[in-house]
Write a structure and sequence with these properties.
Oligomer: single chain
Number of domains: 1
Structural class: mainly alpha
Distance between the termini: 31 Å
Length: 95
Amino acid sequence: MATYGFGDSASTYVAVRILGLREGNPFVARLLESSGFEGLVAAKVAALCVLYGLYAASSLFATDRQRLFVPAFLSLLGAALVVVNLWVVFHAYMG
């Protein structure tokens, strides 16, 4: 979950705020325009809370093995988002 919460947020911050690149996700771009980076962090915290609630509630209907889907999904999603952000930064400056 660190890749989603911290990795994607940090790489987005570096790409958009420090390097001046444009956010490619229209939803995130609007969020950054209207609420700044703080709004993005708040949205990520809200998403993590909802997903934690789903994870906690899944104990009522899922096996322990099935419950691992939520944190595994978040970890893989975060890793993919970090890779995409790094790819965009690399190609913006190297290619």
